[in-house]
Amino acid sequence: MVNLELHNQTVRIDAGELVGYEVGGHEYIHQKGSPGWRNSDTEMFPIIGPSNEANFRITTPRGPAVQDQHGLLREMEYKLVSKAKTKVDFSKKYVSGTAVKNSKFPAKSTEEYLSWPYSFEFQKSYEILEKGLKIQFKITGEEGMPFMLGYHPAFKLHSENVTIQAGDRTISLQEVLDIGSRALPILECESIALFDNGGLSIKTEGFGNFMLWTEVSNMLCIEPISFYPYAVNQEELHTGFLKLDKLERIFSVIIQPNI
C-alpha cells in the first residue's frame, strides 16, 4: 500500500489502484466490498467496451487482435517506479504479441489469452495538489499504434439527492441507473461536477468525453473516455481508435473536492 499526504488530504493506492481519497475525513472513493463493483479504479486500454459480439477480435492495421472487454491492460500488474511524499509513479510494459492471461476465462469468456500486435509502455502517476488529486497517464510505444483510453474510477455516494452537472445539462442518478450496463454518454465534454454531500469536480485533458455507470445508489463511476464504444457495433470498434502519432501521448484527470 502506498500513502500520499498533503494538508488534510490522504490518498491510498494499492498496486496502482486508487483505493482511497480522503479530504478532511470525507472519503470520496468507492470502497471494495461495498455493493456495486469489486474494484475502485482501473483503466480501459487499448480498447473500451465489450468485444464478445465480434468474437473477441478487434481490427487493427496489423490484423485482428484478441481483446476482451475494456482491453488487456487491466490484466497486467503495475510496477512501482518512484515515490515521494505527494507523488507516485507506476508503469506497465507490454511486448507485442505477448499472451496475457484473461481473468474472465472460462466463466465469462471463450478466450483464455489476450494479445496486442504493438509494444507499449503505460505509465500512471498520482500527485496530490494543493486542492485536489491529479492522475496522469503517459502512453509510449510504436508510432501509429491504434488505441482507445478510458479511466474508470468509482466514487462513493453519501446522500440520496445526487446530481451530475455537465455544461448546461443536469443528470440525475436515476438516469444513470436506467441506462444500465451500456453507461450514459456525455460527449464532447472535458469537465463534470458531482453534487453530493461533499461533492467534487473532475477536469480532464486528452479524453474529450465521459460516460457514467452504476447499478447501485451508493456508488457512481465517472469515466473519462476517448471514445464511447456503444456508438457503433462491436465489429466496428476500430473506428474509434486514436493513433500514437508521436512517441508519447499524455492524458490527465484532476479531481477537485468541494470541501
Automatic annotation (TrEMBL):
Matching InterPro entries: Aldose_1/G6P_1-epimerase, Gal_mutarotase_sf_dom, GH-type_carb-bd
Keyword Ubl conjugation appears in the UniProt entry: no
Gene3D superfamilies: 2.70.98.10
UniProt KW keywords: Calcium
Signal peptide interval: none
Origin: domain of life: Bacteria
Cofactor(s) needed: Ca(2+)
Calcium recorded as keyword: yes
Pfam families assigned: Aldose_epim
Subunit structure: Monomer.
Protein name as catalogued: Aldose 1-epimerase
The species this protein was found in: Arenibacter arenosicollis
